[in-house]
Amino acid sequence: MAKKPGMGRQKIKIAKIEVKNHLQVTFSKRRFGIFKKASELCTLCGVEIAIIVFSPARKVFSFGHPNVESIIDRFLSRNNPNNSPIANNSLHLVEAHRNASVRGLNLQLTQILGELEIEKKRGESLDQMRKTSQSQYWWEAPINQLDLHELEQLKDSMEDLKKYVTNQASKQQVNYEKHGD
């Protein structure tokens, strides 16, 4: 049986989405994607990033490496002419310590996200295999296409099913007679 060609990835027109439900779904997927890319950029290049996003529902989401607050503080302090060199040095030491541990966590996150993506693809593949195999069971074939062995198996299975149904019906009858319902 030939595999049907799928839709695959389609190029979408970049314009504001008008349907509220679609807007929220797209926002969630794209937010996850941009945070993942930011994490990868931090891990690969050792950069510091802060991203703050407000959802269509006015909820705030943020991603920061090492964290959003320290990057915003650093950004604001660079624009403040009253900074002392001693305070800046201690701030840099604290940030360097944070960066070391956060880089390791970002690396772990990137690896876990990669593994998650692999598992999702594996699950999709297994689901496709399951769907394909369900349509290929021999007992679903027209009866005139079954061989002798398959016909005997089908007959035995139907006899077992008949016994089971008869047994269940008898139990229900006894139960009905006991309770008089």
Short key terms for the protein model shown above:
181 residues, mainly alpha, elongated, 66% helix
What does this structure look like?
- It is a single chain.
- Helices cover 66% and strands 7% of the residues.
- By secondary structure, it is mostly helical.
- The chain has a two-stranded antiparallel sheet.
- β1 and β2 (60-65) form a beta hairpin.
- The longest helix has 50 residues, at 85-134.
- The model has no long low-confidence stretch (mean pLDDT 80).
Topology (SSEs and partners):
Elements: H1 20-45, E1 49-54, E2 60-65, H2 68-78, H3 85-134, H4 148-179
Antiparallel strand pairs: 1-2
Amino-to-carboxy terminus distance: 53 Å
Overall mean confidence score, pLDDT: 80
N-to-C SSE series? HEEHHH
CA-based gyration radius: 31 Å
Based on secondary structure, the structural category is: mainly alpha
Number of strands: 2
State which percent range the strand residues make up: 5-15%
Oligomer: single chain
The shape is elongated
Main beta sheet: 2 strands, antiparallel
Keywords: DNA-binding, Nucleus, Transcription, Transcription regulation
Subcellular location: Nucleus
Protein name: MADS-box domain-containing protein
InterPro entries: MEF2-like_N (IPR033896), TF_MADSbox (IPR002100), TF_MADSbox_sf (IPR036879)
